[in-house]
């Protein structure tokens, strides 16, 4: 097994099973997870401190001082997992690694890369006979260490040799199913991860609006807020994000002793995947308004100084607090979450059609049930719906899911109406309700839009009583 390493005699070819490049939050924890499952892991990072940390904390770790040294430490065919920031760092690594790899080696990009970059890199790697895998990884630090959800895109033959290891390190869903699947070729895995993050943005926004409503309209204490979220988390709304929200609401600032949310500045950050999800939905012409609204909401939150100035200029309206506020907010959370998943799955289906990927939507629902940030009880119902009807055009058309929407419909509406009357901004809830109402309207306002387009631009319109485009001379010549 140990053949000697001509690239670096210091390390020698110890026949490591996998090389991890990028030993930050995700890479270091995935390396430890891989080692737990019997793999010998070679690791490289630009940062010497991170290499030392890897050596100190990962069982059997083989720290390497350069990409060349890492390649020399691996057994053939070589498997390399890149866990570096998306964009230029991945291209830089590809340039360094690709000329040194051999046909049959497997290069995995586990970062949050854009699926179009992954398409391009897959084609480039293929020219050298190297298998490229775009792997969506979700679960954050804890997931990487104990079991993430893994969404793989790449040729089936590339996945075959690495599938057992990826299956071993993946999370398990509540029924024991591993949360790893090949969802399609080239960028399909990163596409699915991008939509995962879009759903994550929107669900986080819905939850944040729920907390804000109860606090500002209901005057709830942090203890009562935490109790409400804990209660919701025992029912249909159970999810990882509800669980961590409950913990956050119970946490106090170590310095001041006040509830931690009181001292966190209300300006949200973002790294780009939510934005990509929203723009991709627009490019595909598939409505995902609540995902887009969640991105806009983060952008609005970042205008902190302007908002503070405007708040002094415009007084808020007041409105009575409804007696059933908690149950209505719960209805809005569930209705909103269903709408958001419906949007996300519809965009994945549209992407799959557009790029010819044949993504199995039920497999996506299956692997999202464990490990990932958006794991939620609702995914069991979504999996059942997609197993019953694999080509369901929209999750809200499934009778079991639509009955959940209609059951909470009145409460959902009351909350959005009451929040609006009280000047409490609920952009994700409002958008999700409008999506639901738009989707369930057999006849919409678009006849007026068509008439306007034909009026000013002679674009033509379709009649409802016969096929074909027609034009009206709107004004006498
Ligand atoms: N954090 C999270 O919750 C999740 C992150 N991801 C994705 O995983 C990827 C990694 O994220 P994360 O671990 O959080 O990021 P970190 O910044 O914690 O770690 C990235 C590491 O990669 C190193 N690095 C950058 N370029 C190179 C290179 N060319 N060669 C070797 N090492 C390099 C960085 O070194 P240096 O700092 O010196 O540049 C850094 O140590 C990203 O694409 C991210 O979007 C995916 C899911 C969840
Ligand atoms: O992929 C992730 C979770 O699934 C990462 O944590 C990602 O960074 C989250 O996105 P953002 O930083 O834009 O909130």
TrEMBL record:
SUPFAM superfamilies assigned: 6-phosphogluconate dehydrogenase C-terminal domain-like (SSF48179), NAD(P)-binding Rossmann-fold domains (SSF51735)
EC nos: 1.1.1.44
Segments forming domain 6-phosphogluconate dehydrogenase C-terminal: 189-475
The keyword tRNA processing is assigned to this record: no
Pathway terms, separated by semicolons: Carbohydrate degradation; pentose phosphate pathway; D-ribulose 5-phosphate from D-glucose 6-phosphate (oxidative stage): step 3/3
Reactions mediated catalytically: 6-phospho-D-gluconate + NADP(+) = D-ribulose 5-phosphate + CO2 + NADPH
Pfam families to which the protein is assigned, alphabetical: 6PGD, NAD_binding_2
Keywords: Gluconate utilization, NADP, Oxidoreductase, Pentose shunt
Gene Ontology MF: a single term: phosphogluconate dehydrogenase (decarboxylating) activity
EC primary class: oxidoreductase
SMART domains linked to this entry: 6PGD
Job description of the protein: Catalyzes the oxidative decarboxylation of 6-phosphogluconate to ribulose 5-phosphate and CO(2), with concomitant reduction of NADP to NADPH.
Quaternary state and interactors: Homodimer.
Family according to the record: Belongs to the 6-phosphogluconate dehydrogenase family.
The protein, known as: 6-phosphogluconate dehydrogenase, decarboxylating
Organism: Azospirillum rugosum
